[in-house]
Amino acid sequence: MTDDHLSSATRTTQINTPSKPSAFALMILLLGGFITVFDLFVVNVAIPSMQADLGVGFSDIGFVIAGYELAFGVLLIASGRLGDRHGRRRLFILGMLGFSITSFLCGIAPNASSLIAARLLQGAAGAILFPQVYALLHVMYDDISRRRVFGLLGMTLGLAAIAGQVLGGFIIESDLLGLGWRIIFLINLPIGIIAVLFAQIIPESKSPHALDVDWSGIGLATIGLLLLLLPLLEGPNIGWPLWTWISLAASILLLTTFLIWEHVVAKRNGNPAIDLALFRNAGFSIGSLVVLLIYSTATSLFLCFSLLVQSGLGLTPFEAGTLFAPASLGFISASLLAPKLVAHFGNMSIAFGTMIYAIGIGWLIITASNLDHQSEILIFLSPLILFGFGQGLSMTPLLNLVIGYAEEHHVGMAAGFISTMQQVGGALGVAIVGIFFVTVLNSDANQSTSQTSQYADAFSSAMIYNLIAVMIATILITLIAYKKSAVSE
C-alpha cells in the first residue's frame, strides 16, 4: 500500500464503523483516488495548449508536471501518519477540499509562475488525500471484502489514467466556455465540493499507535529535491549560469544532511521519515534504485511524446489522447497478467517485463527517427502497445518484490518510501529528459529544419536516457530476483 499507516491498520481503533460500509462511501473514496491520478495524466495532453496560451518553454511546463509529483511524493508518509493520529476521514476531507481549491488556482493561473506554485500546492493536497483512501478502505472492510474493493480501486486508477488522456483531450478540444486547457482543473472544484459534502458518511478511524511526523526531515528532503530539479529544468534554456551549479551543490548538501538527520532521529528512538536501517538489506537498496529508474521513464515519455505528436505533428489534444489510449490498455491487460506470471515463473518474469518495456522504447525511438509527416502517425500504435504492456508486466509486481525485502516491522515504512520513490522518480525523469529534449530542439531550430523533424529528433534523443535507465533496471532486477530465488531454495 502507500504508507506506514497501513501497517498499523490492523490495530486501528475504529469509530462508528458500520458492519456493512455504505456503497456510496466506497464511491466517494474511489472518486478521491480517481481525481488525483486523473490530474497527473490529463496534463500530458494539455501541455502544448498551455505552452501556446502562456508563452512558455519546456522548463516551465516541466515544472508543472514535476512539481506536482515531487510535492505528492515527499508528503505521502507524513500525510499517512497525520491520518492515523487525527482521523483518516478528517484528513480525506481536508485533502479533497485542498485539492479542489488548488485545482481552481491552477485553472485561473495568469502565468507560468502562478501555475507552478498552484501545482505544487495541488500535489501537496493530493498527498494528504490519497493515503487516506487506502487506509480507510483497509479498515472499513474485512479480509474477503478487502480484495474486492482494492481490485475496484486498481481498476479505478487504471481508468483514471486512460480518462486523463482520452477524456482530458476531448474536454480541452471542446473548449468548454472558451476556457481551453483551464477547464481540466476547474472541473475539480464542483466535484470536490460534492465529495466533501457527502464524505461525512465515511466512518472515521484513527490508530492508537500513530507515529510522529518528522517535519525537519521532510523539510530537508523537499528543499533539497527542489534545489535539484530547478537547475536541471532551467539550465538547458539559460546556458547553465553559476547559480544553477550553486543550487546543485546546495541540493547535495541538504540531501546529505537529511540522511544524517534521519540517522540521528533513529538513534534517539524517534520516528524518522525513513529508517536508514532499511537499506542494510542490499535487495531493498537495489530495488529502491530500480523503482526510481523505472518510474523516471514513464511521465517523461508521455510528456515528450505529447509534444512530438501535438507540437511536431499537429495532432489535436483529443487525437493525441486517443493515441495514448492503446498504451494504457496494454498496461492494464499486462497488470492483470503479471501476478500469474510471477506465480508461475517467479520474479525473473519482472526482468522479462522490463526487457519488453525497453524494446517498446527502442521501437518508439526508431519510429520517431524515421518520421516525416502526419500521415504516418498510426505507425506509433504497435510500439505504444508493446511499451504499455512491458510497463504493466514490470511495474505491477516490482513494488511487491522490493517491499518484500523489508523486515515485517518495517513493511509499512518501506511501502511509504517506495511510493515516494515512484513520484520523485517521475519528477527527476522529467528534469533529466528535459535536458536532452531542449538541447536537441534548440540545436535543430538553429539549423532551420522542419518542425516535425525538430520534435522527432528531440524525442528520439531524449528517450535514449529512458532506454538506458530501463536496461540498467533490467540488469538490477535480474540480480536481486536471482538472489531472492537462490535464498528461497
Detailed description of the structure:
- By secondary structure, the chain is mainly α.
- 79% of the residues lie in helices and 1% in strands.
- It has 16 helices and two strands.
- It has helices spanning 23-54, 58-74, 76-86, 88-107, 112-140, 143-174, 183-186, 188-198, 215-238, 242-267, 282-312, 317-345, 348-369, 381-403, 411-446, 451-488; strands at residues 13-15, 204-206.
- Strands 1-2 form a two-stranded antiparallel sheet.
- Helix 2 (58-74) runs antiparallel to helix 9 (215-238), helix 9 (215-238) runs antiparallel to helix 10 (242-267) and helix 11 packs antiparallel against helix 12 (317-345).
- The protein starts with 12 loop residues before the first strand and ends with a helix.
- The relative contact order is 0.14.
- The model is unreliable at 1-18 (pLDDT under 50).
